[in-house]
Amino acid sequence: MSRARSNVDVFHAIADGTRRALLDALAEGEQPVGALAERFQISLPAISQQLKVLREVGLVTVREVGRQRLCSMDGEKLGQVAEWVGKYEEFWRSRLLALDRHLRSKRKGH
Hints:
Distance between the termini: 48 Å
Largest sheet: 3 strands, antiparallel
Order of helices and strands: HHEHHEEH
């Protein structure tokens, strides 16, 4: 899978802790931008910037209801991340099993 430019790359978007925390909050359901901002110790414009990055990669949608902007998570793009991580699942599983066998053999040796 070829990686997209960083400004539209889901991997770039989730690399930031604040953006991951926003996604965690939105996993609970649709929320107004103001309510999201209250969860963080950064300014509303900073939250808006983080949400913009998430919108650009398709992880967040925003709809306007009156004067409110309501945000929702669209987790479909996270499938790219799951697919990439999944490639390494067997690698780590085999490494952990080998470590377990090694540790058990060391315990038996004492």
